[in-house]
Amino acid sequence: MTGTGTWATPSGAAGPPRAVGIAWALLGLNTLGSAGAKTVVPLPRSLIQMGTMGALVAAFGLALALNLRLRVRPSAFVFLLTLLLVPSVLSSVQLEVGFGALFRCARLALFVATLWLLSRWWDESAAFVRYHVRMYVAVLALVAVGLLVAPGTALPEYYGERLVGALWPLTPPQIGQYAAVVVGLTVLLLLGRGTTRAGAAVVVVPALVLLAMTHTRTATLGLLIGLVLAIGSLFLTSAPARRLFAWAVVCAAVAAVVFGSALRAWFLRGQSQESFSNLTGRAKVWDALLAEPRSLRERLFGTGLGDKSFDGLPIDNSWLAVYHEQGLLGVVLVAGMLLALGGVALLRPPSLPRACAIFLVTYCALSSYTEVGLGDASAYLLHLTLAAALLAAPAPAAPPTAATPPAPDPSRRRVPRWARR
Questions:
Q1: Integer Cα distance of 358 and 360 in angstroms
Q2: Are 363 and 383 in contact (CB under 8 A)?
Q3: What are phi and psi of 166, to 5 degrees?
């Protein structure tokens, strides 16, 4: 980084190979999932699972081929994520939720191993941020094409006419999550001159439209609060951040006055006060999960990796899902991952990589209240991995080799032989 106003490649870094971006995209494909809305062309779930799992295997193989010497970057986040495999395996071997638990453990282990292999190229450059944005822009483009091709399928009545994936089974919360992350990272790239205004507008405006069509409150609040904290971390050191913050405050005030009633109606989504107060039925599932009698082993290690549901109903809370599947030990490890990233971000000097990490950690922490994914291979873990990559300490400079001798010091003059005598 050269200051806090421009995003540049660290000195002495050549940047990761292009194949690293392909491996990152394959990890993103694996986290899209196989369950969701009905598509225009019905896709068998087994076929989708084969594709997503094949993407993970290909990502691991590609990362291993790029890093045959197994050079990794120390990371407290990935280390804690590796430790999360312990309660996952100890609870899954009991087969309380079937053999699928062991399959999910293997998937999580392969996911973590791929992250270790890719950690060799983690630095403060914008490379992984661009990989992340391009990957989810491609997913949003697929959603937009599905909306144009089959608007009735993309806005179904069983989801309250909220936007879903018509070509790939994606739910409204998933689309809202991807749109919010794309908007937030693109705005921060624009602040760091990592993209042009025209390029940012081409990405941000359609993503905001898709986010509005999903009616996803969690993603919207996560985007707003995450951007406020991220831009606020640059407030004292970046003039563009101060200008953007001022304009955002003015626009928010005008929107609250002019479109107040419309925003309130969008936020409520036509729900009654009772439905809104119990979080669309989530609170009932949470109370039943906490009231379920458990043995000491189940409290410590959980019941095994499952489909993040309880009695056939989605849990929709990362902390309760981790407690149910990986026990109190899993909750402690997940909390440690967030605290480690947040602590490192607070200790770093103001910079654009730090601002992006703050945005991602804030977004994932807020979304964990109504979404699942912090305890298993998911897009949320990929967001947090990007934050860890941006907060990684710079790699030490490689010592000079025999083929490339060190450059002579120009300050030392050559003394003639007769003078030395």
A1: 6
A2: yes
A3: -90, -20
Going 20 to 22 to 26 to 27, the CA torsion angle's sign is positive
Residue 95 is classified by DSSP as -
> What are the structure tokens assigned to 260, written together?
């107040």
Element (H or E) spanning 322, and its range?
helix 318-347
Report the distance separating Cα 354 and Cα 336, nearest Å: 19
Say how far apart CA 253 and CA 247 lie, in whole Å. 10
Q: 125-138: b or e for each residue (b if 16 or more CB lie within 10 Å)?
A: bbbbbbbbbebbbe
What type of residue sits at position 275? S
Q: Identify which of 96, 371, 59 has the alpha carbon closest to the alpha carbon of residue 217.
A: 371
Query: Which phi and psi angles does 309 have, rounded to 5°?
Result: -130, 160
Helix, strand, coil tally for the chain in percent (to 5): 65, 0, 35
Predicted local distance difference test score (pLDDT) of residue 255: 77
pLDDT digits 0-9 by tens, 286-322: 999 999 999 999 999 999 898 888 888 899 899 999 9
pLDDT value at residue 406? 56
Phi, psi angles (nearest 5°) of residue 66: -80, -20
Rounded CA gap, 280 and 173, in Å? 14
- Is 175 exposed, middle or buried (CB count within 10 Å of its CB: 0-12, 13-18, 19+)? buried
pLDDT at 37: 76
CB 356 within 8 A of CB 1: no
d(CA 24, CA 83): 22
pLDDT at 111 (0 to 100)? 96
CB 350 within 8 A of CB 231: no
Query: What's the pLDDT at 276?
Result: 60
Could you please report the per-residue DSSP string of 111-163? HHHHHHHHGGG-SSSSHHHHHHHHHHHHHHHHHHHHHHH-HHHHS-GGGTT--
Can you list the residues of the chain whose pLDDT is less than 50?
1-3, 11, 401-403
Q: Which secondary structure element, helix H or strand E, spans residue 200, and what is its range?
A: helix 197-214
Q: What is the DSSP string of 278-314?
A: TTTTHHHHHHHHHHS---HHHHHH-S-S-SSEETTEE
Report the C-alpha gap between 349 and 222 in whole angstroms: 23
Contacts of 233 (CB under 8 A, 6+ apart): 350, 354, 355, 358
Euclidean distance between CA atoms 129 and 386, whole angstroms? 7
pLDDT in the model for residue 7: 66
